[in-house]
Structure formats: structure tokens, C-alpha cells
Write a structure and sequence with these properties.
Layout lengths: L3 H18 L4 E5 L5 E6 L6 H16 L3 H7 L23 E6 L2 E9 L3 H13 L2
Antiparallel strand pairs: 1-2, 1-4, 3-4
Helix pairs in contact: 1-4
Length: 131
Amino acid sequence: MITLKDAKRIIEAAEVKAAEIGQPMNIAVADAGGNLIAHARMDGAWIGSIDISIKKAYTSRAFDIATKDLATHSQSGGQFFGIHASNDGKIMIFAGGIPLKQDGKVVGAIGVSGGSGDQDHAVAEAGAAAL
């Protein structure tokens, strides 16, 4: 189970990485049910990325996969083509969502948005490492 204290620690670690690369981000942490525990919008981060970060966390938990990997399989002709239209539009197929694991079990997810896909993923990895 991810607590609010855990979520704050994850967000703080992600914020450090975002500051290192000079890209303000929106960072969301979801629980095992895909529900939002905590969200932070760094100063200067795009308001349009708030929703995206939350949905990346949801997507990553809903399918227990990094959104970067889901994106690869959801392109035209891929096995998950069209998946973004499922779950009432809550599925994001951009890099930046990563499942959070404890003892090999998925207990939640982090979603990051505000930079390039590579930047979002790197910041999410930094946050996930704090768990």
C-alpha cells in the first residue's frame, strides 16, 4: 500500500530530477486502484499537463505497464491499437507513467507530464526509485 507519506516522497524525488533537467513537471501518484493519492504542479508547469499526468498514473496502474511501453504496442497495426479510446478516455499512451512496485507487486503508479516523452519518463523513474 502506498501512503500519502510515500506519495510525497515519490513526488519530491521526481521534482529533484525535473529541476536537474530544467523542466517543470506535473507529477501524480496513484494507489493500487488507480486512484489519485497526491499531485504536484511545479512552478511553471503546463496546466494542460495536470490531467495528462493523472491519467498516465491511472493507465500505468490499470495495465501494470510503463506508458512508454504501452505506446509502442498501441500504434497502428499494433496489438493494442485503439486502447486509448477505452476506459472513458482515461488512457494515455505517452511516456511518463510507471507502475510502482513493492516486493515485486504493483501497489500504484506515478504519472509525469510537462516535457518530452524521454524527460517525462526519466522524472517518473526518479520518483519510482524513491519508493
